Structure formats: C-alpha cells, structure tokens
Amino acid sequence: VDERQSLQLLWNAACVNLGGAVTTAGNCVPPGGGAASTRVTAFNNRSEAAKLAIMQANLTPAQYAEMLTYLPRDKRTLESEQYTLDAKLSMPLQFAGDHMVVVGGQVIQGELNDGVFGLEAGVPGGTQEHNMYSVFAEDTWTPIEPFSITGGLRYDNHDVFGDHLSPRLYGVYTISPQWTVKGGVSTGFKTPKTTQLYDGVVGFGGQGVSPMFGNPDLKPETSVSTEIAVYWQSAVGGHNFNFTVFNNKFEDKITSQPCGGGLTLACSTTGEYAELGYSTSSRTVNIDEVVISGAEVAGRYQILDTLSFRANYTYTDSEQKSGASAGLPLGNSAKHMANATLNWDVTNEFSTQLMVESRSKRYRGVDTLTGQQLYFKDYEVLNLGAQYRFNDFLTVSGQVNNLLDQDFTTYDSTFIDNGDGSWTPNFQDHYNNKDKARSFWVSVNARF
Questions:
Q1: Distance CA 237, CA 162 (A)
Q2: How far is the C-alpha of 389 from the C-alpha of 120, rounded, in Å?
Q3: Taking Cα atoms as reference points, which of 297, 295, 294, 263 lies closest to residue 281?
Q4: What burial letters (b/e) apply to 37-65, b meaning 16+ CB within 10 Å?
Q5: Which of the two ends of the chain, N or C, has the fewest CB atoms closer than 10 A to its terminal CB?
Q6: Which domains does the chain have, with CATH numbers?
Q7: How far apart are CA 220 and CA 161, in angstroms?
Q8: How many CA atoms lie within 13 A of 63 on its CB side?
Q9: pTM of this prediction?
Q10: For 89-104, what is each residue's pLDDT tens digit?
C-alpha cells in the first residue's frame, strides 16, 4: 500500500510537469478542455504501458530512478495440478419400451500452490488440496414413440464436504418432425473452489489494492432447476429455433461480500485486513437463498450450403432472498447476454468461425453514499476460430479470443479523505473480466 501511494505521488508529479494541478483530493487534473472530473478519469485510466511512457518523459531523472526501484514486480507463484478420470458405459435395453441406460463415474485429485496463500500471516506461499469422486446412473425410457422420459441419480463424495445425492427428471414429447416440447427438473451440487476454502488472502481486486479472502466455513452450493422449452426444426434447409423459460433456486449460493472493520463480516480468522494496510476487502460467503429466472431464445439459419449463422439471447433476473443484500441482484450477473457465430466451411476439411459475445447490466453493488445500484460497463468482444480435419481420426483447432484486443483493464480512481491529512485511494474496475484479454488457443483432437 505504501508503494502504491508513493507511485501515485510520482504519477501526480508527472502530471504537474505536464501543466496539471493536484487537487485537495489527491488527484491531478491534467491540462486541457472539458470538465476536470472527466480529465482526471481519462488521465488515471490509461494503460500501464502508457503511464510508464508519460512518467519517463515528464519526471526528473531522480524521480524516474525512484519509480524504477519499484520494478520489476515480484512474480506471483500460481501452480495448479488436477488429475481427472472419467468413465461412462451406455447400454440399450428392451423392457416395456426402449431404454438407454448410462452409468459412469469420475475421480478428481487437485492441488493448487498460490503465492498469496499465507500473505496475511507474513508467510506467503502455500498449498491447497481437494479430492472427490462421483458415480451416476440414468435411464432414458421411451414407452411410446413420441414420448421419452429420463430419470437420473448422481452420488458425489468430497473429502471436505462428505456425500450428496442429486436426482433429475426430464421429459421430451415430439409433436411432429418439426416441433418438440421438452421440460424437467434437476438438482445440482457444487463444491467451493480450492482457493475459496483458504482462510486468508486468495487474490486481489481493485488494481491490486483490495484483497479477496477465502472462507474455510463455506458450504457446498445446491440448486433445483426447472425449465420448459419448445424446439422447431425446419423440414429442409437446416434452420432451427428454440425458446426456453427457466427458474433456478439456489441454497447456500457461493458469492463474495465486503468484509473488515466496521462491517458485520470479518475477513479472516488468521489476521484482519486492517493489519495489512488495505482500505477495502471482500470475502467469499454463502447466501442462504438466491432465485434466478429468465428466458432464452436461440436459433440457427443456413445461409448457404457452406455458410451458417447461429445466435442466442438470454434475459436473466436474479434476486438474493436473504443476508445483507436481500432483495438485490446477484453480483456480476448479467441481465442481458447474447452470442452469435458465423460459420464458414471453406472446404470439406477446413472451417472457420467469427464469434461475438455481449454482456450488459452486470450488477456490481450499491453506492454507499447514495444507495444507488451500480453496474459494470457493458461490453462486446469478437473471437475468431478455425478447424482443420486431416482425416477421420485427427483434427487441429485454433482460436483467437478478443480478436480486436479490447482493453478490459481500465478503472476509475478516487481518493477518500481520512480526516487526518491523509487520503486513501479507491479503485473501481470498469469491467471485472480481465480473463477476456486477448489469448491464443490451439488444440489437437485424436480419435482411435
């Protein structure tokens, strides 16, 4: 935190050398036209590379040398290993109609080493482990040709949370070759991530100034999901369309909430956030009950024999039913989600896809001063993928995510008056999805 504040002073010095002026709030207003608040936001929200260039050009040699003492930053150890074994057996049977019985199982052993584990106790670096296994069985029964019903049961056993049974029931009625109605009820069981169970710092938000704490008292998340859908398939041309309404009820929903001094939620049993010098912090918690409902529409249109377009849109309404945030939406849940893909089969072996995804109205929290609900910025991102099938046994795929290299690292910065002549920085991420940064993927699929 001290380093962050020192860097802010150097950043302000560069701004002053550009002709700006530092306000009583600790922000530097750069020269130029327009409202001061707009100029401050634009100046502070530059990329890290742009900030380094400005500081190099506008600091004195001594100031620039001081800035370089903070670089390079120590690397954060982050190593993960997970071994997964899956097995499944399908068996067609004849008994009072057609049956397709599927049985299977899964074994998972995982280990995570993270440099922030133990940070709150002054001994960074630690390991978290988790092991679990599951077995399942389901039967799809077709008593009469237009109707089938699927019943299933899954058993999970986790080395921390013990065992759990999850049943499901789903029905499909084929009205005609073009129209089908589907619906059912399923239950879910989701254990916390390995990092979320650690009793200490597990990561940072707010551009590195807001630690996120795990919680060893977390419970598994359980859910009951209900849906009904109508599907249409064209007789010719490969066009299709479907419409779904859904309602999901979660018990012990896993999310995060603010923690620390002056709040009802403590950050950790092994050391308070205030001892680390941070002004804001959050901790992973369970919400007793959350309801998520909505509707989805999706479809595919075959433009040409080699060119097709598919898209979907989902409207989601979420509400926390208990806790300090009762009545509010679920954090980071998008009210509007849309995806679209244009697929081109260039040859029989080579195909490519242009994809776009959009998210809007993502709830981030409540303004502590006005009580107004706050939302992350809306965004759209393009991805480009391609596949080449060498033969019936070997396919190579590649994808560029965030094709246009859109910047998702921007944030707003403000300073809070501590009343003693000092100021505490506060940073608010615009998007909260740095995983959307440009990335490249290549995969090989072999069948034998």
A1: 50
A2: 51
A3: 263
A4: eebbbebbbeeeeebeebbeebbeeebbe
A5: C
A6: 1-73 (no CATH), 76-299 (2.40.170.20), 332-448 (no CATH)
A7: 7
A8: 20
A9: 0.70
A10: 999 999 888 999 999 9
